[in-house]
Design goal:
The complex is a heterodimer of chains A (782) and B (136). Chain A is mainly alpha-helical. Helices cover 73% and strands 2% of the residues of chain A. In chain B, helix 1 packs across helix 2 and helix 2 crosses helix 4. The chains are: A mainly alpha (782), B mainly alpha (136).
Chain lengths: 782, 136
């Protein structure tokens, strides 16, 4: 087993081990668990020299042979960049989350979900096979659902979690379909074996659906317009989750995928334009919406949407500069946004409030948190010396250099930059140095475990901003090279001279400062945004939800009548119709049977059965009906015995006997026999019963016309003793040839037993007083 | 339903039925019988006891709870399915020993599997009857 698989396995094992460590004091548990991602981070970092030399690392493990389902892992510049972010920020989040939730009884659960997420996210960025990628992709959606719904006591939280799951998992399905289409065009499910350049894909007759499906997958995951609405709602998650999933990692999976597919889809008709359009719209919508939020986490959520839009737009531009800028910004954003989310959590923790209009002057009491906030805010604003500045410079250079759309791209980027700068001042300045606000309780600094992480992340933004050559340049260049083959080195310098780009950067900061001064007024006038929000795509989601739940409620109310006789009736009528249709359509039934050769004792048995059947129907009480029905069963068993089906006969005898006994037990409990059905209903029932009898007779006569499976029969007869060492063919089939079927059957049997127990325990209609709820819902339903 | 005839008959029938059920379980590989039939016979033995002495009596004779029978049976059947894997055989490929035991016959994973079926059938039938009969 190779190192990549081992890392993945260790992370997944940690998700199982974490809840078993209840005995370890919570502080030490948190620190021990943080070692897992930290160790993985170190291990990935050890690959840096190799990757910087341009080498890639491959591992392959067969999964389903012949279908192309294999775990193929690949570590190149792009996946290494993401793997380092996932494990590095992951270590910080484990420490932070373990401290943030240390008094919460659900902490073990939190760790389990978190490690499942971490492992699946690593799987997404390491998988080279589309099927493995899809499995991990959906696992991130699933674990994100569990993490968002961590505080599942609130209805709003559950709704938000479900919404995120439905949106992203549906997108995942679309992605799967799109990738399969791409695989059929490329001839391999392993992405690295695809031919770069889009010729093969464009030649596919399914090129347009392929692109649309892939984009739906990436856009839902990365919260692009028109699927962006789930991300702000996902802020119902505990803050460590928001910091990890909803800023640094999961939402970037879509961006990762677009980057990974860029060598293949980039340049195909419509791809770049679509990415630029949707990315640009998302970027602007996110920026505008962020300005009107008062909840600190919502502010961060909308700026995250905006940043994701920016990344998608840059990937859509597709030039070397744009992609390199995107990589720098990606890292810068993960660091500052992760830090700011944790700052938001600390502020919430320390003051009991997240309202940006009511908070202020916190630096005196929350120095470390404040330091992290200031450093991260500088990076967010794009202030010189910080990583965010380098990203913004490169992106400005790229938009000014774009061959077609200089003005719209630069303008949109400028507006977003202004919004980022203004909001950065709001968070970095107003919250900590502005006028003292009114909060729920007296502000206090949080535990060291909660400020170490954000300070580290924010500090990295400064160090990498000052010394890019020594820290990040090489890896980011390699990552960009995966996206744009032949991208070459990444030119980042703190000082370019007095260029238009520098002018734009300064102008962005200045206008952003002005925007901050207006911020309070913009937030006060947010009524319009709520009205406008009513026409957003979330309306479609809500409408679809209402329709789907309404439809299933109505349809199940119709189908699930609660009356056993209707269920049986529906099942039988369906069966008869389905059986008769082909017989009638293909004109199969040409009876040529005669009664010649029927022995007298067979006639006698048949007569006995007929009399018993009529008597069952005519019986005037249930016990008699059941007893005579038993006669019918024994008669059938006799037929089996006569024709050599000894096993069948024995089983039939036993089942009849046991059924009779069970019937007797049930009959005790039933009220007296009275006729409730009308004559019309009885005619209907008789018709169904007679039809059923005729259908079964027809089928059996047909079956004897076509000696089915002669070869199969011979195979069983010949091989039963030689292969399976048993002379009783029936039993050999049950326990050897078709043992898997039997295993399924006995499992169903066991579950049926549980079902009977549940039914009897329910005791509908006579709930004991202590277990009865205030209003009996079961009864009202009936 | 506590009559002297039934009581005496049950005392006579109970051991005989159980022996018969085991016989049909083990001879099932070559003669008519097998786990399903054997399980039904055994279950009918316990049903007779229950008819006569009520659920408590049936449960006492059964020793273990029906759900434990079901669980044990499913586990055995599954073990029989995966046991060949470590020996390099396929899932559910039959493993046979090289010797005979009187009555049981040649031991192998199909016998184990059949025993699982037997236990599940006993457990399910008893569970159903106990659930229904216990509901007063």
């Amino acid at each position: 087993m190779g190192p990549l698989a081992i890392i993945l396995l260790v992370v997944f094992v940690a998700s199982v081990v974490a809840p078993l460590m209840q005995r370890v004091p919570v502080r030490w548990r948190t620190r021990l668990l943080a070692l897992v991602p930290l160790g993985a981070f170190a291990w990935f970092a050890a690959y840096l020299p190799e990757v910087l030399r341009g080498e890639t690392w491959h591992e392959a493990y067969p999964w389903v042979n012949g279908l192309g389902f294999d775990f193929v892992f690949r570590l190149d510049g792009l996946s290494l960049l993401f793997a380092l972010m996932i494990t590095g920020i992951g270590a910080i989040i484990v420490l932070y989350g373990g401290t943030y939730l240390q008094r919460h009884p659900g902490l073990p659960r939190f760790f389990t979900y978190l490690f499942i997420f971490m492992g699946s996210m690593l799987g997404v960025v390491l998988s080279d096979n589309i099927f493995a990628l899809f499995v991990f992709w959906e696992l991130t959606s699933l674990s994100s659902y569990l993490l968002i719904g961590y505080r599942h006591g609130h209805a709003g939280t559950r709704k938000a979690a479900l919404q995120a799951l439905l949106v992203t998992a549906t997108g995942g399905l679309a992605l799967m379909a799109g990738l399969i289409l791409a695989t059929t065009a490329q001839g391999s499910p392993v992405i690295s074996q695809w031919v770069p350049g889009g010729e093969a894909l464009v030649a596919s007759p399914y090129f347009i659906p392929m692109v649309v499906l892939v984009l739906i997958g990436a856009f839902t995951k990365s919260a692009q317009f028109p699927f962006h609405f789930w991300l702000p709602n996902a802020m119902a998650a505990p803050t460590p989750v928001s910091a990890y999933l909803h800023s640094a990692t999961m939402v970037k999976a879509g961006v990762y995928l677009l980057a990974r597919l860029s060598p293949h889809f980039g340049g195909t008709p419509g791809w770049n334009e679509t990415l630029m359009t949707f990315g640009g719209i998302t970027m602007l919508i996110g920026a505008v919406w962020a300005l009107v939020q008062t909840d600190l986490k919502k502010v961060l959520a909308y700026t995250t949407i905006s940043a994701l839009g920016l990344l998608v737009m840059a990937l859509g531009m597709g030039t070397t500069l744009a992609v390199q800028g995107a990589m720098v910004f990606l890292l810068a954003h993960a660091c500052y946004k992760g830090a700011l989310f944790m700052v938001a959590g600390n502020v919430d923790h320390g003051t009991g409030s997240r309202d940006v209009d009511r908070l202020g002057g916190l630096f005196n009491v929350m120095r470390w948190t404040g330091a992290a906030a200031v450093l991260a805010a500088f990076s967010m604003a794009g202030f010189p010396l910080f990583l965010g500045f380098l990203g913004k410079e490169l992106l400005y250079e790229a938009t000014l250099d774009h061959p077609a759309f200089i003005w719209p791209l630069t303008g949109a980027l400028f507006l977003t930059g202004v919004a980022f700068a203004g909001l950065a001042v709001l968070i970095g300045y107003k919250l900590f140095f502005g006028r003292k606000g009114t909060t729920a309780h007296t502000p206090h600094e949080v535990y060291p475990g909660m400020w170490v992480g954000p300070v580290l992340l924010a500090l990295f933004g400064l160090v990498a901003g000052i010394l890019p050559q020594r820290t990040i340049q090489g890896l980011l260049a390699k990552a960009a090279e995966v996206v744009v083959p032949g991208a070459g080195t990444l030119e980042i310098d703190l000082w370019h001279g007095f260029t238009p780009v520098l002018g734009l950067s300064v102008l962005t900061l200045l206008v952003g400062l002005g925007l901050y001064r207006l911020g309070g007024r913009i937030r006060k006038a947010r009524g319009w945004s709520r009205r406008a929000g009513r026409f957003g795509p979330e309306r479609l989601y809500d409408g679809g939800w209402e329709w789907a739940t309404g439809f299933s409620t109505r349809s199940s109310a119709y189908i699930q009548s609660g009356h056993l006789r209707y269920y049986i009736m529906v099942i039988l009528v369906t069966l008869f119709v389905l059986a008769l249709l082909p017989i009638w359509y293909y004109d199969l039934f040409h009876p040529a049977h005669t009664f010649a050769g029927v022995d007298p004792y067979e006639w006698l048995l048949a007569l006995l059965l007929a009399v018993a059947v009529v008597s069952t129907v005519a019986a005037s009480n249930r016990l008699m009906a059941v007893a005579i029905l038993g006669v019918v069963g024994y008669g059938v068993a006799l037929f089996f015995a006569i024709y050599g089906g000894t096993d069948m006969a024995m089983t039939q005898f036993l089942v009849e006997t046991l059924t009779l006994i069970v019937f007797v037990y049930v009959l005790w409990k039933l009220p007296n026999y009275i006729t409730l059905t009308s004559t019309g209903h009885r005619f209907r029932d008789i018709t169904i019963a007679l039809t059923g009898g005729m259908v079964m007779t027809t089928i059996i006569l047909l079956v004897t016309d076509y000696p089915l499976g002669g070869e199969l029969k011979r195979f069983y007869a010949e091989n039963s003793y030689t292969l399976a060492k048993g002379r009783n063919v029936v039993n050999v089939i049950l326990v050897d040839f078709r043992a898997l079927d039997t295993l399924g059957e006995i499992t169903v049997l066991g579950i049926a037993g549980l079902g009977v127990m549940a039914l009897m325990k329910l005791k509908l209609g006579k709930t004991p007083a202590k277990a009865r709820p205030a209003a009996e819902p079961e009864r009202r339903k009936r | 339903m506590n009559t002297i005839i039934l009581r005496v008959a049950v005392e006579l029938m109970f051991p005989m039925l159980l022996v018969a059920s085991l016989l049909s379980l083990f001879r099932g590989h070559n003669e008519p019988g097998g786990g399903f039939i054997g399980g039904l016979v055994a279950a009918s033995a316990f049903l007779l006891v229950t008819l006569n002495g009520g659920v408590e009596e049936g449960q006492r004779r059964l020793r273990f709870r029906p759900l434990q029978f079901i669980g044990a049976g499913l586990t055995l059947a599954f073990v029989a399915a995966v046991l060949p894997l470590p020996f390099g055989f396929a899932f559910f490929e039959a493993l046979w020993m090289d010797f005979y035991i009187p009555i049981i016959g040649r031991p192998g994973t199909p016998v184990l599997f059949d025993l699982g079926v037997y236990l599940v059938v006993v457990g399910v039938v008893c569970k159903i009857v106990f659930s229904i009969a216990d509901d007063d």
